[in-house]
Each structure stands twice: as C-alpha cells, then as structure tokens.
Specification:
globular, binds S-adenosylmethionine, 12 strands, binds iron/sulfur cluster, 12-stranded mixed sheet, TIM Barrel, about 325 residues, alpha/beta
Amino acid sequence: MLKDSYGRIIKDLRISLTDRCNFRCFYCLPYGEPPLASKEKILTFEEITRVSKIFASLGIEKLRLTGGEPLLRKEVEVLVEKLSSLKTAEKSLKEIAMTTNGYLLKEKAKILKKAGLDRVTISLDTLKPEKFRRITGIDCLEKVLEAIEAAQEAELNPVKINVVVVRGYNDDEIVDLTAFARQRALTIRFIEYMPLDSAKKWDRNLVVPGKEVLQKINEVFPLELKENSRGTETSWKYRFKDSTEGEVGIIAPITDMFCGACSRIRLTADGQIRTCLFSTKEHDLRTLLRSGANDKEIADFIKKVTLQKEPRHYINERNFTPASRSMSLIGG
Ligand code: SAM
Ligand code: SF4
Ligand code: SF4
C-alpha cells in the first residue's frame, strides 16, 4: 500500500503521455507551448507499462492517461492494451481512464474501448463555436461534440465532461452546458480556474466559486447531493431531482479545498514523479528506471517519494509559490 506521511492512501496515478498539445486553451497554454522535453526523455510505452505495474503492485487502483493531449501519442491504443492487461495480473488495478480535448477521439473511441480503456473525460467549456475558438485557439467545436457522441456510442461510460469555469468567458453558459449534459445523460463537472497556466496570468477575480455554479444550476434544474462525503474524489456529486439521467460535479479546489483526502500522484511524460499538482519539486524516476534498477528498487523509490507528498496547496495564502511546471506539462 502507498501511504504518505499524513496517512493518505494513494490510489490514483495520473500519467502524462506527452507534453505536447494541439490546443491553446487560454487558461493552460495561452502563448503556445513552453519548451518541450526532447524525444529521448519521453518515457516509452514499455517504460510506462513497467512503472504502472510497479505502482499497481503498491495498490494503485486507477490509471488516468492525460497530457498535454494524450491522443497525440502515436498508437496510444497499444499502450492502453498493455496497461489494461495489468488489470488481470495486479488485482488492485481496476480502471484505466483518459482525459482528452476530444479533437482526435471520434476516430479512436471504439479502438480505445476495444484496447481496454474503461472511460473517458472530455474537456468542453462552451457550446458556442466562436467562443470555443477564443478559448482553445482552434475552431473545432463540432468535432468535439462528435467526439462526445462517439465516446458514448463506444460505451466509454460514464462519459464525463470537464468545464473550467472562468468569469467573463463562460460563466454565462453554466445552465446551457448543464442542459446539454441532461439531454445526453452525461456527467458534467464544473472546475474552478487554478493558477496553472503557462503565462502565470491567473487572476483570482476570474475564479467562479463552485457554490455560485451550484446555485445557478439549482435555480433551473434542482439538484440533490448524491453522497454526504466526497471520499477521495475531487467533486461533490449531484443528481437531478426530477430523476433525469446524468450527474453534475462541482470541483472547487480554491474555495473548498479537498487536499485532506487526496489520493493522487502524477508521472510526467518525461518520467518525473509529482506528488502534488502544485509541487515545486519533482522526483526523477526516469534516470532510476534507465539505470538498470530492479522492480524492488523502483518500488522503494516510489514509496520514499510518496512520503514527501505535500499536505495541501497554498493558493489562498500570501506566500503561495506557483507550481514548477504548468498544467499541460504536469498532466491534469
Ligand atoms: N488536453 C487534455 C484536456 O484538455 O482534456 C488533457 C490535459 S488537460 C491539462 C486536463 C484538464 O485540466 C482539462 O480538463 C483542462 O480543462 C484542465 N485544466 C487545464 N488548465 C486548467 C486550469 N488553469 N485550471 C483548472 N483546470 C485546468
Ligand atoms: Fe491542451 Fe488540455 Fe491544456 Fe487545453 S487544457 S491547452 S487541450 S492540455
Ligand atoms: Fe492533492 Fe495537491 Fe491537488 Fe491538494 S493540490 S488535491 S494535495 S494534488
């Protein structure tokens, strides 16, 4: 079992497959990509599989493939198949999920399902084509909507939608996005804007508190809390009182911190372990992996690093130090 020094059990490994992205979301990559890792530094599928197996042997239950944009990684389904096969050997491992911007998903959805991907989360911040272009830098709302449909057809369920809510950009669409999710029986999660953009332009005034999001939805589509605890999840989950299918999630890292129950650890595309989204220091697994270390040595390193997991973030404190890398390089 992987336990940190505060007694939190780590069950969720997020793996960034690439630091590259084909979008330029203003809250993530406003001025294009920061310097990327050289190709040799990026972990191979074999390395990712080996590390995942070791993590799974330590009790990891869920692998989430992310990035950058994970679908930019060529033949990603080959990796998904390798990771999925670990579910048989490592009993703790139960789920392989992916977070994607959806651009390349329509063509891949069925292939990924067949390879063993259990479910997918797709980012969608607006239903208006021009605003979509303004937010992401790419004019392709229709493509992402088709990807959502394809994901549901491929039964990558429950298909989840991530919305980063930013004041003055898309807070006027909270209800419309919820209506969209209701029509399609999707899980929709509204996320507070965090200081993880590559330009370090985050502005607290642009954060829309989760409570405000909830209130706006509740006025039109009454909601009820599904459970009285978030457990180790990041979101408060709500169902529609009128029993319409679908779910609303409120993720409020700024105004309603959930660090006390954090179960997450991250691996960057270039093989660095990050024990917190807001870590200012990373742990070099790649060098160890490539130095001929055996599985036990790697497992010991992971256990040692986990003990250094930060208790929480300090976004709301005056002495907040930004994370050492921005979101697209960390793996959200
Ligand atoms: N490219 C994929 C995507 O956008 O879904 C996966 C990686 S992206 C970094 C993972 C998630 O982080 C996305 O849902 C994105 O909206 C979210 N995200 C990115 N920057 C953020 C920020 N500054 N605050 C909150 N969420 C952010
Ligand atoms: Fe790319 Fe995802 Fe960041 Fe948007 S949020 S720029 S899609 S990594
Ligand atoms: Fe976990 Fe760090 Fe996120 Fe808090 S800020 S929930 S400790 S990853």
